[in-house]
Amino acid sequence: QYSQIRPACATARNMCGRYEETLSNYREQRLQCAEALLYMGKYKDILNSFPDQAYMYASALLYSGRSSEVISRYPNLREQCANALIVLERYDEVLSNYSTYYYHYMRACQMTALKHYIAGRKEAAYTQFNGLTNAQYSRTWGLPFYFYRFLLVPYLHFLDGDKAAFTKACEEIVADSKYPYMQMLWHHAAYAIGRIDEKEFLAQPRKMQLTGTHCLATAMRCEYNGDTAQALRWYRKFIALPLYEGVQAYDVFVKWRIRELSKR
Known about the structure:
Blueprint: H1 6-15, H2 19-25, H3 30-39, H4 43-49, H5 54-63, H6 67-73, H7 78-87, H8 91-97, H9 102-118, H10 122-131, H11 145-159, H12 163-176, H13 184-192, H14 198-202, H15 210-224, H16 228-239, H17 247-262
Helix pairs in contact: 1-3, 2-3, 3-5, 4-5, 5-6, 5-7, 6-7, 7-9, 8-9, 9-10, 11-12, 12-13, 13-15, 15-16, 16-17
């Protein structure tokens, strides 16, 4: 429908997982070509051939496990520095120095609250989570934001023994939120509580990092259904994926679930 807007078409192809088409047919769109390579796991190709694309170059460093290098190499690329600090779990620095970068500030708040919960400081965790409830969010934010904003707290209530809280939260999403967050939130919630099957989950339109979100959502679905052995298997499968599948964004949560389920 908008074939003349080539940057948008290349971005759309990447979102649909059609990376080879971007690389073959949109070579002049260097940003999108670098993005395609990123989600194909071809970090070296970006580092070798796209030094002019600073944002994607920094992303390749992040996904190569070189987060500290992002901070030293690109101190003025504030958004990516904030991403690097979050990966390094240096949340206080994000809260102190990146308050105008609202997405990253919110992510640091979310992760700080989760760390409180994992450490047994549940009251502090829920107080911080509750303080974020009325904050303003962009519906264009995708992974991993929607998970922490809409699914994590109800899931923690489920882990505390209130399964109905997670069921209710997901049912509300299924009823009212099909299209925000590129449909990822809807598919995650519907699949986690069994309202759609695996085939329908995998058929969702956005294919970027779908292998990772499939593993995570399946692990949650298994844990929700009381199958701890399968939940543990899927959490471990997730954490073993390449970093471009979103592992860094969820590793604190997933490693914690692996530790807890391994004790049973």
